[in-house]
Design goal:
Layout: H1 12-18, E1 34-42, E2 46-48, E3 54-62, E4 70-80, E5 89-98, E6 104-108, E7 117-119, E8 133-142, E9 150-158, E10 165-167, E11 175-182
Antiparallel strand pairs: 1-11, 2-10, 3-9, 4-8, 4-11, 5-6, 5-7, 5-9
């Protein structure tokens, strides 16, 4: 007895045209690929005279698709130290995560004292105000090891409690903070 099996005809060209090459599944993306980009911009100003790092309120949140991903955090802003020698601004990026018990864990990704960058006036010019205004750029590649939402915020501090420092340097200037998930 002969059994005859028949399969429906498949038009390979038609099937290839049905594929959506514009949307590769995240898990099939090669290592080094940018999985997602999240960016926030602000046009307000934050000030402090605290000598301890303080949050600016300028942040971005990202929920990584993979625990193994790296997060590239980029900050573009400006700032000023407002006064004279010893009245310096230091800025850093902080990673803020939920500790699982309703509290936030704040982690300074930069140097504990100086963060990533600063505006410092080391020597007074005779009879002049030494207000220093400059651009601030910071970048960091983080390994949060989670798929929970991670918040990255600009924090800053003043060298002297008698001096107010400001980010950005002028009201209305744009502060941008971006987080990109990089697949590993």
């Amino acid at each position: 007895m002969t059994v005859k099996i028949t399969k429906p005809e498949v038009n390979i060209r038609e099937k290839l045209n049905e594929l959506d090459y514009g949307h590769v599944p995240y898990k099939k993306m090669p290592a080094g690929s940018v999985i997602q980009t999240v960016s926030e911009t602000y046009n307000t100003r934050s000030t402090t005279n605290s000598t301890a790092f303080t949050g600016t309120g300028f942040y971005v949140e990202i929920s990584p698709k993979f625990k193994s991903s790296k997060i590239l955090v980029s900050v573009l802003t400006s700032g000023n130290n407002n006064n004279t020698v010893g009245h310096d601004l230091f800025a850093s990026i902080f990673q803020l995560t939920d500790n699982g018990h309703g509290a936030t864990q704040n982690l300074n990704l930069g140097n504990a004292t100086y963060g990533f960058t600063g505006l410092r006036t080391n020597q007074a010019a005779s009879g002049t105000n030494n207000r220093l205004e400059a651009g601030i750029c910071m970048g960091y590649i983080d390994s949060p090891n989670t798929t929970d939402t991670v918040k990255y915020e600009i924090w800053f501090r003043s060298e002297s409690a008698s001096s107010t420092v400001e980010i950005p340097q002028l009201v209305g200037q744009i502060t941008s903070i971006t987080a990109q998930e990089i697949k590993q």
